[in-house]
Design brief:
Length: about 250
């Protein structure tokens, strides 16, 4: 029971990776606070879990402070923060991309991550330590035509991850990131549609064939890495970002 009586706060908890992480931490004895934008999908995803359910727009500073305060009011502390909420937005070449789409993606994926760090790290400093796992992407390490908003946002997450780790290392707080490639979740269904509307099956086949292991990751495989990075088994790891991409990082261009 790696997290017996530890408090784990997860954003984007109604999504595939978020709920897989919630179940993985619960299996290790954690007390859960789960955050998502809407109550109904959060309740559905968290069915069967004993968890504090909180709704918030992660890009709204007042609402971020509120979900952090509510977690501390309920449990007294936050031992682990899985800073996971994110969106992919619409796809288009840069010359055709709507500014509003760029702003929406950056608001959730960058401002949302920043605000979560701002308020959770302050709490972790007060209590004397903690661990953070940020959800980045292999898109934070590569380029992708038509996905510049998402790619730019995930590059920013990796930068935030490094800076935050350096700022709080002396406070006994570790900050790391995971960088998945395609994961078999609803987000990939959206990406497949964006890439080839009406031909999603062909898009999936093409995406999976580009992965050396020949498939998408399962959300549970990402969650397992998150659990490790947040645990004492990773006690000397901070400021790192881990590719979990079925061998994609080994492909030479």
């Amino acid at each position: 029971m790696l997290f017996k009586d530890k408090v784990v706060l997860i954003t984007g908890a109604a999504g595939g990776i978020g709920i897989a992480a919630a179940k993985a931490f619960a299996a290790e004895g954690a007390k859960l606070a789960l955050v998502d934008l809407k109550r109904e999908p959060l309740e559905s995803a968290a069915e069967g879990l004993d968890a504090l359910l909180l709704t918030a727009n992660v890009a709204d500073e007042v609402e971020v402070k509120s979900y952090v305060d509510a977690t501390v009011a309920k449990f007294g502390r936050i031992d682990v923060f899985v800073n996971n909420a994110g969106i992919n937005g619409d796809f288009a070449p840069i010359t055709e991309m709507a500014v509003e789409n760029y702003q929406k993606v950056l608001n959730v994926n960058v401002i949302g991550v920043f605000l979560g760090l701002k308020y959770v790290l302050a709490q972790m400093k007060k209590q004397g330590g903690g661990a953070v796992v940020n959800t980045a992407s292999n898109g934070g390490l590569l380029g992708a035509p038509g996905m510049s908003a998402y790619v730019a946002s995930k590059h920013a997450v990796i930068g935030l991850n490094k800076s935050a780790a350096l700022e709080v290392a002396k406070d006994n707080i570790r900050v790391n990131a995971v960088c998945p490639s395609g994961v078999d979740t609803q987000m990939m269904r959206s990406i497949e549609t964006n890439a080839a509307k009406g031909h999603e099956a062909e898009a999936r086949k093409q995406f999976e064939s580009s992965v050396p292991l020949g498939r998408y990751a399962e959300a549970e495989e990402i969650a397992d890495l998150m659990v490790f990075l947040a645990s004492d088994k990773a006690s000397f790891i901070t400021g790192a970002y881990y590719r979990i991409d079925g061998g994609g990082g080994a492909v030479s261009v």
